User: What shape does this take?
Amino acid sequence: MKDPNRLLFLAMPRDFYSNLFDDPYFQLVLKTYEVRVIVYDFEKYTIEQWIK
Assistant: This one.
């Protein structure tokens, strides 16, 4: 069941995101599929970035 009032985010550790950020294919996928991303610090248990 879909809830139109909720947004889905893909959460990934900062190190993983940092390694993929410069990859043009990764950027294309994020843009093409309008993927929302949460980047978090695994050791500090904190959210570092919300990307819409």
DSSP finds two helices and three strands in the chain.
